[in-house]
Amino acid sequence: MLNKHESVPLYVQLQNIIRDDIICGKYKEGEIIPSETEMMKTYDVTRTTIRKAIANLVDEALLIKLHGKGTMVCLREMKQNIWNFSGFTDYARKKNEIPVSQVLNKEIISLNNGQFMKLIRLRGTRRETHTKWLTLDTSYVPLALFPGIDQYDFSEQSLYNIMNQNYNIYPQHATLGIHPILGDKRTKQLFGYEGDIPLIMAEGSVHGEDGTEVEKVEVIYGPNAEFKVVTHI
Amino acid sequence: MLNKHESVPLYVQLQNIIRDDIICGKYKEGEIIPSETEMMKTYDVTRTTIRKAIANLVDEALLIKLHGKGTMVCLREMKQNIWNFSGFTDYARKKNEIPVSQVLNKEIISLNNGQFMKLIRLRGTRRETHTKWLTLDTSYVPLALFPGIDQYDFSEQSLYNIMNQNYNIYPQHATLGIHPILGDKRTKQLFGYEGDIPLIMAEGSVHGEDGTEVEKVEVIYGPNAEFKVVTHI
DNA sequence: GAGTGGTCTAGACCACTCC
DNA sequence: GAGTGGTCTAGACCACTCC
To answer: What SMART domains does this protein's entry cite (chains A, B) (predicted)?
Structure first.
């Protein structure tokens, strides 16, 4: 139920309830959820509040509205950029695999504007004993923002988890350029393929909630990785 | 001014007015636009209508809201997928260039589920007498939805403009897979380069407002094209 | 304290879908 | 005709920014 005295807006509370109902399977894929009028009675709020909650879930790609019919559960493939860890985790979970990370290199380097941790990781998914490597990530993290971050074990925890939990900084959006490259000796060896095949590289910056740059990153996608985008026109 | 008797919703009319004011420079980058209260008086509509129009422009990455301060013009680099025409036009305009399109092939073909127009276009930008080709687009457009669309001249008008103006269908979002490929003889000739270099290809579907697939598309980016993405984490 | 956007109420009339 | 979501009105109170 909704709590009108809490500081969390009613539409956010409602949004969470509906989202949970979708995820736990109370409302199933392709099903029409209760109408706005019905929810008005159930949750004792006005239609404006219901509609705001639903609109956000439509944006989250969980619901789709059908004029005259109702609102349907529709788990569309999201902006599925498997380059980041949250996407990574989802991707693995869908396939019933475990996300894994191997640290190839970790060092402190000086760039023109300060000290950075340079971290190179091979990332992929594991199913039973078989590991499939998907991306080769090189990150540059400013020590000024994250003092001592080089002490952590990045094969156990994701970089973003550590930023969240230990520094209270939340990576929020990324600006990436996407380039095609030819694989080299290193990518052949790491991803385990032969011949000259083209790969995709994404490079750019990751920003926190206030716009600060929290990471410079370069991701090379191996031949097994998929790269999908959903975009507005 | 707004026309309350037109079938176009007031918030869409208002949205177009504000967007035009931004594009033509009446409201400049970094400037605060008139407040919601002020617009209520100016356009004689309620705040709900104003807010809906503004919310959509925030989604379009033209405005940003600052609680307590106002709503600012903020032409963020969009999910800048220069693969589509609107992005294309913006891209060209920024660089003071003219978007150009050359139709390489146009034919009617039958696929398993009906007849399609297959359209191959080379697209790029022109500055004075020099043309820079950026992408090679192959589109499949269902004739069931767009009867007679093959009669138009696609070197003069964009495909999406024709869909809008003549069929009242608005391409709204795209689902794309992104793959690296090796260029071949054809891409070398068209984009004018030599040697074996990797390119980016995006392929997928474009959907209308109601989710119908309005186009299957494959875009090959030439060596001159940039591909940028802004994504949430 | 004045002005801004954020949330919410309580209605109204409409276009659309389904029967 | 009954039910659905789409648009819109006319208010209220709030948190936030700026002075």
So the answer is: HTH_GNTR
- Residue B94: which pLDDT band, with cuts at 50, 70 and 90? low
Q: Which residues of A touch B230 (CB under 8 A)?
A: 173-176
Least confident of A78-82, A96-100, A207-211, B26-30: A78-82
Our measurement of CA A79 to C1' C15, in angstroms, reads 32
- For the segment A13-31, the average pLDDT, to the nearest whole number, is 88
Asked if residue B97 lies in contact with residue B125, where contact means CB atoms within 8 angstroms, the answer is: yes
Whether B179 and A200 lie within 8 Å, measured CB to CB: yes
Question: Sign of torsion, CA B22 B25 B29 B30?
Answer: negative
Q: Please report where in the chains the tokens 């931004």 appear, as a residue.
A: B22
Q: Give the single-character DSSP code of B32.
A: B
Decide if A229 and B202 are in contact by the 8 Å CB cutoff. Answer: yes
pLDDT tens digits, one per residue of A114-166: 899 999 999 888 877 888 888 899 999 999 889 999 999 988 788 888 887 88
B42 CA to D10 C1' in angstroms comes to: 17
Residue ranges and CATH numbers for the domains of chain B are: 10-73 (1.10.10.10), 85-221 (3.40.1410.10)
Question: By CB neighbour count within 10 A (0-12 exposed, 13-18 middle, 19+ buried), where does B156 fall?
Answer: exposed
Distance CA A51, CA B115 (A): 39
Closest residue to D5 by CA to C1' distance?
A: A67
Instruction: List, for residues B116-131, the tens digit of each pLDDT value.
Output: 999 999 988 887 788 8
Distance CA A90, CA B162 (A): 39
Partner-chain contact B175 A206, CB within 8 Å: no
The set of strand D positions with any atom below 7 Å of a protein CB reads 3-12, 15-18
Nucleotide nearest to A37 (CA to C1'): D4
Structural contact between residues B88 and B105, judged by C-beta atoms closer than 8 angstroms: no
